[in-house]
Amino acid sequence: MCIDKKHLSRRAVFHPYFYRKRKFTFYSESEIEADSSKKIPYAYAFVTDKKAPVFFIAPGGGYCMVCMGYEGVFIAEAFNRKGINAFVLNYRVGDNAHAPNPQEDMAALIKYVFSHKKQFGIERDDYSLLGFSAGGHLVGSFSAENVGYRSFGLSKPRASVLCYPVLTMGEHTHKETMTKLTGGDEALKEAYSVEKHADNYPPCFLWYCEDDKAVPPVNSDALYEVLRKNGVPVKLRAYKKGGHGLGLGYGSEAYGWFDEMIDFVKEYIY
């Protein structure tokens, strides 16, 4: 889900040592005492300008790991090059991935950042989201009212960017992602099938490669059609070749998606 060996040659290696000063935790001691799994999540801060828009990034990994490098900090650095602030979330996965834990981690991070704006050197109160693969499901579900932003007392994101995302928990899901999150519980599968709960959704940019063998592109196609019918601003880019797990897409047909995404979201995030 996270690592496609044929693409390793075009990916830089992630060295946490170089980013250690950007790392922080966001759950309080009392929250961790009440739930020891909350000791696991952390985030990286990439702040470039106090007045710039803010993106929160959820890397992929099938809800079994978090690909913090090419789907996380490298994306945050790309945002910084565009003059946009970014925070990368390491959320609960594996045995701790059961819903709503990953979504709760995103909410806790957003609330922590905005309650410590002076510490982080930001001024904005609004935010946008970007996620890859299973992180795309985290972002996709968080962008929906039923299990996302509204259920955590937060405002709707300015924009939502979904990169080769898992979205449905139904027939065309990525089985491992669905199992880790829902345990196969039918009520949770219904609640976390994003395409069924996209009536009050933020402007959305989606992309995938048509030859993706890990996550069926129909995940994005279905949400795209729902958003169009609901009058939500949406753009879908389908690249012919590239497979899954591309990050910025270096060396693939998808390279350039990031610039296309910025062109789309800039109308909504400033």
Tell me what you see in this structure.
This protein is of the alpha/beta class. The protein has one domain (5-269): Rossmann fold, CATH 3.40.50.1820. 32% of the residues lie in helices and 14% in strands. The chain has nine helices and eight strands. The chain has helices at residues 29-34, 69-81, 101-115, 117-120, 133-142, 175-182, 186-191, 218-229, 257-269, and strands at residues 23-24, 42-46, 54-58, 85-90, 128-132, 160-163, 204-209, 234-239. An eight-stranded mixed sheet has the order 1-2-4-3-5-6-7-8, sandwiched between helices. Strand 7, helix 8 (218-229) and strand 8 (234-239) form a beta-alpha-beta unit. The model is unreliable at 1-10 (pLDDT under 50).
Keywords, separated by commas or semicolons:
8-stranded mixed β-sheet, disordered N terminus, Rossmann fold, single chain, alpha/beta, 270 residues
Q: Briefly, what is this?
A:
This protein is of the alpha/beta class.
What CATH architecture do you see? Answer: 3-Layer(aba) Sandwich
CATH H level, superfamily name? Alpha/Beta hydrolase fold, catalytic domain
The backbone outline, from C-alpha atoms, is globular
pLDDT averaged over residues: 95
Q: What's the alpha carbon Rg, rounded to whole Å?
A: 17 Å
The helix content is 25-40%
> H/E series, N to C?
EHEEHEHHEHEHHEHEH
Treating each run of at least 4 consecutive H or I residues as one helix, how many helices? 9
**Distance N terminus to C terminus?**
33 Å
Strands of the largest sheet, in order across it? 1-2-4-3-5-6-7-8
The count of DSSP E runs of length 2 or more, i.e. the number of strands, is 8
Oligomer: single chain
Task: Using the coordinates above, name the CATH class.
Answer: Alpha Beta
Class by SSE composition? alpha/beta
Total number of distinct structural domains: 1
